[in-house]
Amino acid sequence: MPSLSRRTFLVSTTGAFAATGVASTTTIAFGQDGSLPAYAAWKDGEAMIVHSNNTIETRRDAIGAPSVTPTRELFVRNNLPPPSEEIVADRDAWTVAFEGVANPREMTLGELRGLGVVTVPAVLQCSGNGRAFFDHEASGTQWSVGAAGDILWTGVPLRAVIDAMGGPAEGARFLTVTGGEELPAGIDPLTVLVERSVPIEAVDEALLAYGMNGEDLSLAHGGPLRLVVPGYFGVNNVKYVKRVALTPEESPAAIQQTGYRLRPVGEKGAPTQPSMWQMSVKSWVTEPLADASSGRILIQGVAMGGMASVEGVEVSTDGGETWQEATLTGPDLGAYAWRPFALSAELQPGTYLVASRATAGGETQPETFEPNERGYGHNGWRAHAVEITVV
Ligand SMILES: Nc1nc2c(c(=O)[nH]1)N[C@H]1C(S)=C(S)[C@@H](COP(=O)(O)O)O[C@H]1N2
Ligand SMILES: [Mo]
Q1: 332 phi and psi, to 5 degrees?
Q2: What are the C-alpha distances in Å from 57 to residues 74, 147, 339?
Q3: Which atom of ligand 1 is nearest to the CA of 13?
Q4: What is the pTM for the complete model shown?
Q5: Beta-carbon contacts of residue 363 (< 8 Å; ≥ 6 apart)
Q6: How many CA atoms lie within 13 A of 209 on its CB side?
Q7: What atom of ligand 1 comes closest to residue 126's alpha carbon?
Q8: Which of 129, 191, 235, 276 maximizes ligand 1 atoms within 8 Å of its Cβ, making it the mutation to test the pocket?
Q9: Fewer Cβ within 10 Å of end Cβ, the chain: N or C?
């Protein structure tokens, strides 16, 4: 059982947030019994692990090998409690402020819809997906592989919106987007505000999404409107978007300045360290995970390239001694999507260490991944391998 202080960490993101002790009072509404919180009660409970009210993971054995993750099985991750359901009652009335453009203005979602539409398949993955595979007990939710899913996002291309406002203002270098949660009273807003910056180049691929897998975006996933930056880690995909700004500097919010920074174990976050922006090549086996009967067994999983299309996936049943090329089974949905893979193997009774190793954009998954303070970005194939017993 984790200690109380560790538990406080589990429900928060930034060190600042946890250090204030505020997390324990504002987000203590735990799914203590493992049940889904009200705002996500429509999720498939059988498929999910409820770590807390604000951190809900897809079970590894529920992932299977889908091209697109069913919405009811997609993970949820909130740094703050989500806003009230009222914000999705009248979606088109939702307003967003645009700044750092030639002609700054506010627009309603109803108006934004008129500017264009695009559907982009892209992986949504939390920076901490795979944290549980580090040995140094990185603080935070102990996600295994299920803080990720492949989604069909529908929305307005951000480029069209910026163009409609006369283009970026002079000196703009970052896209800075603010979430619309109500902030807890009595503490410095910058310690809890969800506001993220990404390099301005991301505008070309980003969208303001109002649809997920052909349906209106739910409150749990950021409805009525969220930012999607294809290829970038989950945290950059700001939900409940209230403000979009093209800025000369990165956001002053702690979540940007010190949070989500890749750094050596034991070091504090700082703006000079790499930010969790672009994702890397990664894959994991989703079945079988435990016992199997001898004979022909179908090993399946999913592989993503981050910013590049998956070129291939190799599978090993002997812990990486030998590898065989797997088949990419799903359609090629582009650079930002994942692809399911499969390999049929003849296995005699015994124990096997089953691993997968993807290649994309000329990069192959490494065997190990350097530990880092917060346990971000793990894509080492060995730690993601599964031991199965064939009887
Ligand atoms: N406004 C807002 N946006 C947010 C967050 C948040 O807490 N508030 N969490 C971020 C993080 S850390 C992740 S991993 C993704 C999770 O998206 P999901 O809950 O739709 O799965 O949303 C990101 N966007
Ligand atoms: Mo995340």
Answers
A1: -80, 105
A2: 8, 5, 20
A3: 12
A4: 0.92
A5: 280, 281, 308
A6: 30
A7: 14
A8: 235
A9: N
pLDDT band at 3 (very low <50, low <70, confident <90, very high): very low
Give the residue whose CA is nearest to atom 10 of ligand 1.
235
Nearest CA to ligand 1 atom 9: 78
CA distance 282 to 289: 18
Chain centroid to CA 123 = 7
User: If 0-12 CB within 10 Å is exposed, 13-18 middle and 19+ buried, where does residue 34 land?
Assistant: exposed
Q: Which residue has the tokens 């700001």?
A: 238
What average pLDDT does this structure show over 21-45?
67
Which pair of structure tokens corresponds to residue 183?
């902030």
> 343-357 burial string, b = 16+ CB within 10 Å, else e?
bebebeeeebebbbb
Q: Which of 354, 293, 348 is nearest to 319 (CA)?
A: 354
Say if residues 300 and 284 touch (Cβ distance below 8 Å).
no
Q: Which ligand 1 atom is at minimum distance from the Cα of 241?
A: 1
List pocket residues of ligand 1, CB cut-off 6 Å.
74-80, 124, 126, 179, 181, 194, 221-222, 234-235, 237-240
Give the pLDDT band of residue 32 (cuts 50, 70, 90): low
